[in-house]
Design goal:
By secondary structure, the protein is mainly alpha-helical. It has a domain at 6-67. It is 68% helix and 0% strand. The chain contains two helices and no strands. The longest helix has 60 residues, at 6-65. The radius of gyration is 36 Å and the shape is rod-shaped. The N and C termini lie far apart (116 Å).
Length: 104
């Protein structure tokens, strides 16, 4: 059997080094693509969350100022208070779950 010449060994080592470098670059590209996907998802979630928070804040403001309920004198609770005052009941308006018996 003959010994491999130095040129064959050098070619093999060069091929192995190039193959290893290309595999490393492929892994880096995949990792970078995944990071971009994660970033895009985070931005989409942040935009959706911000839009939801804006809607909640607008609704809370509208409830506080009475512009959403359609009543001229106040928010949603003012309309309930107005109804409970006009029905002849001696019960005062209270929040659900905090009922107290009427005082006579």
């Amino acid at each position: 059997m003959t010994r491999p010449s130095g040129g064959v060994v050098a070619l093999y080592l060069a091929w192995r080094r190039q193959h290893s470098t290309e595999a490393d670059l492929d892994n880096r590209e995949r990792a970078l693509a995944q990071q971009y996907e994660v970033l895009a998802h985070q931005q989409a979630v942040a935009a959706t969350t911000q839009a939801h928070q804006d809607r909640v804040a607008d609704d809370a403001h509208a409830d506080a100022t009475g512009t959403r309920s359609g009543h001229r004198d106040g928010g949603i609770s003012a309309g309930i208070r107005k109804t409970s005052d006009s029905d002849g009941s001696n019960l005062r308006f209270c929040r659900p779950g905090s009922w107290e018996p009427p005082t006579y």
